[in-house]
Every structure is written in structure tokens, then in C-alpha cells.
Amino acid sequence: MILICGGAGYIGSHMAQWLHARGQQVAVLDNLATGHRGAVKWGELIEADLRDPAALSRVFASRRFDAVIHFCASSLVGESVAQPYAYYGNNVAGTLNLLEAMREHGVERLVFSSTAAVFGNPESALIDESHPTMPINPYGATKLMVERILADAAHAYGLRSVALRYFNAAGALPQHGIGEAHLCETHLIPNVLRAALGSGATLKVFGDDYDTPDGTCVRDYVHVEDLAQAHGLALDFLAREAGAHAFNLGNGQGFSVREVIATAGEVTGTPVPFEMAPRRQGDPARLVASSRKAREVLGWQPTWTTLAPIIDSAWRWHRDQPAWSLGPAHCGAG
Q1: Catalytic annotation, pick one of 10, 87, 139, 166
Q2: 3-state secondary structure of 46
Q3: What is the mean pLDDT of residues 75-95?
Q4: More exposed terminus of the chain, fewer Cβ within 10 Å: N or C?
Q5: At what angle do helices 257-268 and 188-197 cross, to 10 degrees?
Q6: Which domains does the chain have, with CATH numbers?
């Protein structure tokens, strides 16, 4: 059985579906602070919080887990700047509690959800694993701190781990009734689609004077199903390889904000209204991943490689969102 921590959230729910479809038994651990009960369609839901060591000890004592996939985290950059104690407490201390429970009960494989935010400001057009790690906000710092803990745990305790640093997760699997359901939404594609539906706040484009082809920021979008595939491959990798490892996950190509808006207009058949706004402090002009290592070492082959199908999958989800996606989830630690 695989334990998916944070499996009631966006990527975690897609991970549960991916494993279930391949015959794997799963359990979901989530405190439902930002996740949704309705997203847990595959496997048992265990309501617990990583900040509660006693609860974790009970969970691991009551079941036998072969590996853990860890998605639980507070992940809003601006909030992390305003509330760093909460972010270190949830993302770092919570992970330490999880690692202690795993060690106590002999679970030796962990796939960790990391982020491109560990790199900070880019120093090259394509960011590979050799790029310096210099996070510029507490969120990125907490993720990098966990990566360092995992390296130490490999040496001291023999923990096998993979940290997957994604760039911009996007898309949905509407045929399975799951998608990106954040009430506090900060990601571009869902906000563009909410603008197309007329159900969100006015869409703002922050800056049009960057050194990019159309002046707006360029980002690398990777479909959530491709991310789930990478986590599954990482589990297989850890069955044969010891140590702590890190891989970048992205499509290796970037799309500008204007390109996303234009493509969303084509997909939805509706021009997407937006207004220009000044640049936001700390927004790099371009963030694009090199995923060569993941392709060569893990055998990862993304299947969603162009922008329109990614946006279309998200559009079909947002257009027909189930009632649970509009429930009482809120912004904050979870």
C-alpha cells in the first residue's frame, strides 16, 4: 500500500487515480485544510495532520505502507513571506514528524513534492539540476530545507528518496471528476478560465515590458497527469536505487502570459478579458525547466506536450466543477 500525504489536494488526488488505475492499493492522509473530501475517490481517507506526531504514529502502527508520496505543504509564496513561522512549522517540522514515523515503522521509500522555487532567480534559459539553489522566499526555502534533510537521512538512516521539482502544474482529468480546486487561486490558467466563465476576479497581467517575445512572463506548464506518472516512476526507481535524488519536471518549453490567454480564448470560444498591471516584485521574465535527467534516468515521457490540450482539460473541469470543489477549503496551512 502507498500512503499519499495530501491526497485530497490537486496533485495528490491525480496521483491516487494514477496509482489506482495501475492496480496499486492507496491510502490518503490529509487534514482537509486545503484539500477536499470529495476529491478522495481512490483509497481510504485518513484524517490526520503532519504536525501531530502521536496521530502519525497511530496511522503507521495500524497499517503497513510500502512507500510514502508526500504532497502536504503550505504553498502560497506571498503568504509564506507574511507568515514564515507557519510555513516552517507546517512544511519542515511536519515533514520531520512524517520522517520519524516512517523510520519508526520501517518505511524506507519517500517521493517528495518539491518545487522550482528552490532555485530562486534563474541564471540560465533552461534550469537543470545543476542550477544554484538560492530560494528567494520562505516557501522555496522550506522545500529546499526538506531536500537537505532527505540527503542527511539517506546517509544516517538509509532512507531512499526522490524530490521532484515541478515548474507550473496545470490541467485536469475531468473524466475522473478531479481538477484544480483552490478557493484561494494564484495560478494563471485557472484564473484565466475563471475570467472566461465570468466567475472570478478581474484577470490582471503583471507587466508587459519583460525581455520576452511579447513582453509578458514566460512559464513552463506540465500536466498534472504527467506529474503523477513521474511520481510513479520515482517509486520504481527507489525500489532499485538507494540515496537521495532530485529531478526537475517541466515540458522544457515556455509559454507567455499572452499566449496562455490567447490559447484559452481559442479553447473556450470566448475572448478572455484582462487588464494590465505593473510588474510584481520578484517575478522572473522566464522560468523553463530542463527535464533531461528525469527523461534519461526515470524514463519519464510527458504525453501532454502542447498548451491547447492542457488548457482544454482544465477548461472542461472548470466548466463542470462538482459541488465539492466549491466547499469550505480555505487558504492557509495544510
Answers
A1: 139
A2: strand
A3: 93
A4: N
A5: 40
A6: 2-170+221-250+290-302 (3.40.50.720)
